[in-house]
Fold this protein.
Amino acid sequence: MNVEYKNKWISQLKKGTLSFIVLNILNKDKEYYGYDLISEIKRITDIDIAEGTLYPLLIRLKNENLVEHNWVEQQSGIPRKYYKITKEGKSTIAQMKAYWDNLNQTINSI
Amino acid sequence: MNVEYKNKWISQLKKGTLSFIVLNILNKDKEYYGYDLISEIKRITDIDIAEGTLYPLLIRLKNENLVEHNWVEQQSGIPRKYYKITKEGKSTIAQMKAYWDNLNQTINSI
DNA sequence: ATACATACATTGTTATACTATGTATTTTGT
DNA sequence: ACAAAATACATAGTATAACAATGTATGTAT
């Protein structure tokens, strides 16, 4: 087994799957803030995501109008940027899901 | 629907899935040459792969000892580089497959 | 006081897909 | 016969995204 290659592959695989996972989570219609999403993704998928990966990702999704955010001040501590999915985000993730399912089926049939 | 984002996403998704697809195809224990793999992938997955994508990918897989190749002269035309999977390739793709299946299940459960 | 956790963010590096281009041979269309 | 397309390999330059490292600021625990 080429462990190094597998690890490099997992890192590359994230380049498509991370945004997919984030949108799927937000598609549950619950609002999440960035720091929270990191632990939620870790909890669900056991995947560790660096903050330097997630924050730019959320900014990209925002720029593409797939998500929106609002700052929420806390009684104590740093204000949080809560993200929620947009209508455009919902229709886009539906298409992505269809593509993903089809790809998965195809690969399983090889 | 954000079509541009979806297309960009598909391109990013390939960064993990292409090598996975190629190794899965070679794992059938048939030998393929590069140009042939492009049409085989198109046939199976309907994904268009540029030659400038596949040839460097095969070279990387070779450098990682996941595949090996031998030149085969043709009665007419340009000689072909036939690739086949190695033992290390087989054990690695098995691990990748396990990771992929688990990831797919996780995403479906969100 | 010091370290750790929370919560945001940016910079530089690395890996990979894609476009464009190059070389050479053979086949197909007109 | 000639041009275009297909076959079959390859490399160079560009764009994108993950990751490590670092930064800012606040709050909590030892």
Residues 3-26 of chain B form the longest helix (24 residues).
